[in-house]
Structures are given as C-alpha cells and as structure tokens.
Design a protein that fits this description.
The chain is built from 2 helices and 4 strands. The chain is an alpha+beta fold. A hairpin with a 4-residue loop joins strand 2 and strand 3. It comes from Paraclostridium bifermentans ATCC 638 = DSM 14991.
Length: about 70
C-alpha cells in the first residue's frame, strides 16, 4: 500500500520509527520538499500489513501536527 504523507517539520527517520512501532514493513520510501516548512514523503508499505496497524500509523501521523496529511495513493 502506498501513502503520500505531507509533514510539517518531521523527518523521514521519525516515519520509519513510527512504522516499526506499528509492526509495518516498509518496501520503499522517498522524500521531497514542498516549501521551507513542509515536506512530502512517499512511503510504500508491505501488503501484509494489518488494517488496524495501518489505521494507528495514519492516526499518529495526523496527531503529530495539525498541518500533517496522509493519503493513500
């Protein structure tokens, strides 16, 4: 499953750690700037991921900062 994540002042390492905390395996991850404060991170998670773990992962991303967004692509 692929997600496009826009984060405010986050880091790619934070998302890797968050995925590990939620028992999610990352197939690939890429990062690019949006502006000085925001970055876009595209993350491809293993299809073996459980829905509950994915829901927790997305919720924690959104809870980190009000400007964060996470969409499945």
């Amino acid at each position: 499953m692929k997600f496009s994540i826009e984060v405010n002042r986050g880091s790619i390492l934070d998302l890797i750690n968050l995925a590990e905390e939620n028992n999610l395996k990352i197939n690939s991850i890429a990062q690019g700037p949006i502006n000085d404060e925001m970055m876009n991170i595209k993350i491809d998670l293993s299809d073996n991921s459980k829905v509950h773990d994915l829901d927790n992962f997305v919720k924690k991303i959104l809870d980190c900062h009000s400007m964060n967004s996470c969409e499945r692509i």
